[in-house]
Amino acid sequence: MLRVLMRVLLVILAIVVVPLLTALALAILLVVILLLLLLSPLRLQVMAQYDQGGPAAAAWVGLFRVFRFPGPKKVKKPKKKKPKKEKAQPEVQQEPEEAGPKGQTKALIKEGLALTRSVLGQVRRRLVIREFTFHYTIASGDAAKTALTYGRMHGLVGTLLSFLRTTFRVKKQDVRINADFEREKSQVLFRIRLSISIWGLLCLGLYTLIKGRGLIRLLVRGRRGKKRPIQKGEQHGQASHQ
């Protein structure tokens, strides 16, 4: 009798207690990871640059670089050309799509604009511009054209800087616009470095998913309303059955 009771207790432990303890341990581990992300100063940094050498970009998580463009050059091996065989492709005949409701496009635009405004508000709170550098030496070989471009660029850059200062936190900025009446080619250096905490990035993604549920529903409904294309063989098969 005692052995039977021991076996029953072991079965109960295996079925009930062990899964509960495993789930509890996983929950505690998840909470600890979230707390570490919340309290950790770990940040994602993205840098984009354009100069006479062309575009470049890089990304770091903490001190570790996770992305670089352009990457290391790879030596391409010459590939042997194989003769291509022509395959007869079945003709695809698409049925005319049924016109959706007239208000569907307007609803998509409305939801998209609302989501964009909401997400940009969150980005404004969490994103930091660590560096904004813009050096532009205007040259064209024509003094009048150079002077005209110089005046336009001053107004445009002033508007852009005013928008950045009032919208984001800008830590460092270096803007220089010069006119060179002797050279014939302009020179430009643009570099921007953005930073956001890992926790802020996770919150931003979760916020976007929650706020974008209405837009996702509209997109799913629109895709379900479309009919798939019917191939020629299927069309003949349907006619023979009739």
Describe the 3D structure.
By secondary structure, this protein is of the alpha+beta class. The protein has six helices and nine strands. The protein has helices spanning 2-39, 103-126, 143-167, 198-211, 213-224, 232-241; strands at residues 43-51, 54-61, 64-69, 92-93, 128-138, 169-170, 173-179, 187-197, 230-231. Strands 1, 2, 3, 5, 6, 7 and 8 form a seven-stranded mixed beta sheet that branches. Residues 95-99 have low confidence and may be disordered.
Rg result: 30 Å
Order of helices and strands: HEEEEHEHEEEHHEH
Percent in strands: 15-25%
Count helical runs: 6
**For the terminal residues, how far apart are their CA atoms?**
72 Å
Net shape: elongated
Overall pLDDT: 79
Q: What can be said about the biggest beta sheet? A: 7 strands, mixed
The parts where pLDDT drops under 50 for at least 5 residues are 95-99
Give helix % range. 40-55%
Number of strands: 9
Q: Nutshell version of this structure?
A:
With 242 residues, this protein is of the alpha+beta class. Helices cover 51% and strands 24% of the residues. Helix 3 (143-167) links the parallel strand 5 and strand 6 (169-170).
Give me some keywords for this one:
242 residues; alpha+beta; 6 helices; elongated
Q: How are the elements arranged and paired?
A:
Blueprint: H1 2-39, E1 43-51, E2 54-61, E3 64-69, E4 92-93, H2 103-126, E5 128-138, H3 143-167, E6 169-170, E7 173-179, E8 187-197, H4 198-211, H5 213-224, E9 230-231, H6 232-241
Parallel strand pairs: 5-6, 5-7
Antiparallel strand pairs: 1-2, 1-8, 2-3, 4-9, 5-8
